[in-house]
Amino acid sequence: MSRTGASGCSRLPIPPRNRRELIQHLRAGGRQKNAGGRSLRLASLLTEGYVADETHPVAERVYAAGAIVHARATTPEFSCAAFTHSKLWGITRNPWNPEYTPGGSSGGSGAALAAGTAYLASGSDIGGSIRIPSSFCGTTGFKPPYGRVPEEPPFNLDHYCHVGPMGRSVADVALLENVTAFRVAAAHEERYPWYTDPSRRPAIG
Prior knowledge:
alpha+beta, three-stranded antiparallel beta sheet
């Protein structure tokens, strides 16, 4: 099976990380048959019954490119640690040595890639949440610059928090980055005007 196709990620299995800005659930009539959405736990015992109410633009682009999202990767609670374990999901271990951590907070994505259960994964990064797992797991990750990849409010105003690709090679990461970046779909132009018109970006300071 070809790993790439005309759509960029045709039939490529991708596990996104389990946090709101990456694993948004589809509205009624969307790609998922479960019209009410899926659970939204953020690796926390406090989020019982939470359901995401919309689809993140990164997830939309991945679906549109033909990728198969076959799993959800673990994170620490609220994605706030450089390791990956929580009371909800337990400990995520490094496939190279189970005595070690895969890092965090995108440690589930890093572990899945290192174990060979996926070619690509998604992450988000403020202080190393893509870069640390990529380093610990011997894989590749990229923290895009601000404005390169669409983000949901309020994270779209954070110049340090960026959604980015993770993979088993530089070429795979570049493939996913090119799918998720650049043009903003018309449906999102009102929510993210600065992606199509940089002069409309919020001022800093």
